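Model: Ready when you are.
Researcher: Fold this.
Model:
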Amino acid sequence: MKRPTSEEMARMKEELYLSLAQGHIDVRDATRRMRKILGMNQKDYAQKVARISPRILSEFESGSGNPTLATLEKIAVPFGLKVTFLPPESWRMHAKKRIG
């Protein structure tokens, strides 16, 4: 997989963060996007970045795996992301209207 230029990486990161904030993608899709931003395949991202088993990453991305919280954190941390609980989108929008 070809590594994107720094400009492409910055644009792709911005799109990733926006898609996550808007709830348009799930964590599996976000993980695939993070790998593509770095121009890495599953094996390289798993071993070199997240320091997890390539099998665990592959199963997670395909939807057949159920990683631990610690594993999800290892996947997310390189992009400054945190694994967290959020209230439903409808409630967050309602809360924004009440606060703002």
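Researcher: Now this one.
Model:
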Amino acid sequence: MPRRKQLIFKIQDLKCAVHIIEELSKLPQLNNFDMKSIELTIKENKPAPQILKKDVDTLVDRLQRGFSANKHKLTQLNGYYLITNIHLSKWMKVTPATVNKWLKDGLIKYSEKSYDNLKFFDVNEVISQLRKQKQ
């Protein structure tokens, strides 16, 4: 992923410089600092994370096939299959790091039926979350 663009402004070039310098001068930790050397750095917004639309159908198909072929091997608790990110990554043929990144970015979520100390996925919930990425 390419670096985000950033713009740097010298404080002296801004009309509000006097007010900013005055405000910062009141802070005791900045007593020994040159207020005229202040620069503002503004970074470009990160693009929203997403799964490519063309890949969603492939991922859903792989997930459904993997689950169907392996559900007899899965542990169940109170009628729910305990599906981990490792299961998802194997079935969808992506790395566990990819699944963890999707979790972190909010593209997929643990099952609503999960417990505080036991997080697992529901295949139907993951499929609907993946399909939302296609919209």
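Researcher: Key takeaway?
Model: DSSP finds five helices and four strands in the chain.
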